[in-house]
Design goal:
elongated
């Protein structure tokens, strides 16, 4: 058998559709966090299934467009503008946004004042996503405010449960998305 073309240490047993070469299982696991693995990669699918089973968190099986887009936006924010973004910051902002949306469902207007620039950036990111889904813009599925409120609460619960299990929200959803 040939050596892995990435590390040149271990035996390459897996064909990687991204690199179009055989690589070892260790490089496969490490590189999938860095590259954009094709969605049809059998090793990616197996890793995602294994991760969901390991975490035993039934909420992770709930896949709604809003939540997928929210995770993508938060991961993008962490990878670009807020490299040290913490789950605690997201939870604080989600709490504010959940209250805002809850009041909006009762036809009340609430505009929170967020002083922390980092939290303001998170807030604006989530608010833009809510607006896109509320308006049903091009690639965004349209949701009413009640549904968005429920989905925000769901994401808050997922973050809290992952935190209680001492799992990293960003690593989990970078792999699952």
């Amino acid at each position: 058998m040939r050596k892995c073309l990435l590390c040149n240490k271990r035996t390459s047993k897996r064909f990687c559709p991204y690199y179009q070469k055989n690589i070892c299982s260790i490089c496969c696991g490490e590189k999938r966090k860095e590259i954009n693995c094709p969605k049809d990669c059998v090793y990616l699918k197996n890793a995602q299934t294994h991760l969901k089973e390991k975490l035993s968190l039934p909420l992770l099986n709930y896949e709604e467009d809003f939540n997928k887009n929210l995770r993508k936006e938060l991961i993008h924010l962490k990878n670009t503008r807020l490299k040290d973004l913490k789950e605690e910051e997201i939870l604080e902002v989600l709490e504010i946004i959940i209250e805002k949306v809850r009041l909006e469902t009762k036809n009340l207007i609430y505009e929170p004042k967020i002083i922390d620039i980092r939290k303001q950036l998170i807030y604006e990111t989530i608010e833009n996503l809510i607006k896109n889904h509320s308006d049903g813009k091009k690639e965004y599925k349209k949701y009413d405010k009640e549904t968005i409120l429920t989905l925000l609460k769901l994401e808050e619960k997922i973050i809290k449960e992952l935190k209680n299990k001492e799992e990293d929200y960003f690593k989990i959803f970078s792999l699952l998305s």
